[in-house]
Amino acid sequence: MTVGTNDALWRGPFGDDYVERNAVSPLYEKRGLFWKAFIEKYKSESVLEVGCGVGGNLRHIEVNWLVGMDVNRNALDLAVTPNVDTVWEGTVNAIPLPDGMFSLVFSVGVLIHVAPADVVKAIQEMFRVSSKHVALMEYQADEDI
Questions:
Q1: Strand partners, 104
Q2: 72-86 burial string, b = 16+ CB within 10 Å, else e?
Q3: 99-119, pLDDT tens digit by residue?
Q4: pTM listed for this prediction
Q5: Residue 15 near residue 75 (C-beta atoms within 8 A)
Q6: Which residues are bridge partners to 46 per DSSP?
Q7: Is the separation of the CB atoms in 105 and 130 below 8 Å?
Q8: Closest Cα to residue 87, out of 32, 136, 47?
Q9: Sheet of 46-50: strands edge to edge?
Q10: DSSP string computed for 59-110
Q11: Do residues 63 and 8 make contact, with C-beta atoms less than 8 angstroms apart?
């Protein structure tokens, strides 16, 4: 199933089931060293994760201002941790934030869920809200899901 501008799929029961399946993962704890080195290397002081889910990456990032954004409200409730300043509900195709607001904007495994026709718009939105760096971390799928 391909998701584009119809984010209702991810906001509803399908997305809630995804959140429940991914609420806890032993992989989250292994991300700490990566994020520490990444943030130090790119000197990021304000960070936005687009499609933060339950906060598996956010919990490892220490910066002056850390924000998570996701289309699923249940995921955002779980993403709130002491180091996260705020979370916003929103879609990658229309990020509800001003231009250049963050020194680093990133997503991990989000674009794979965006309809191919909407991927460029999603990437443009991430560049729009970044003042310095954009990081897109994805994996290869042989077919659209």
A1: 47, 133
A2: bebbbebbeeeebee
A3: 999 999 999 989 988 888 999
A4: 0.85
A5: yes
A6: 65
A7: yes
A8: 47
A9: 86-89, 65-70, 46-50, 102-108, 130-137
A10: GG---SEEEEEES-HHHHHHH--TT--EEEE-BTTB--S-TT-EEEEEEES-
A11: no
Q: If phi over 0 gives left and psi between -120 and 50 gives alpha, with beta otherwise, what is residue 45? A: alpha
**Token pair for residue 105?**
């904007």
Q: What's the pLDDT tens digit per position in 47-91?
A: 999 999 999 999 999 999 999 999 999 899 989 989 999 999 998
Of 12, 62, 63, nearest to 32 by C-alpha is 62
Nearest one of 82, 109, 104, 86 to 38, comparing CA atoms: 104
Structure tokens at 76: 């955002």
- Under a CB-based contact definition with an 8 Å cutoff, are residues 113 and 10 in contact? yes
Amino acid at 45: E
CB 28 within 8 A of CB 78: no
Token pair 């996701």: residue: 70
As given in the structure block, the two tokens for residue 9 are 């799929």
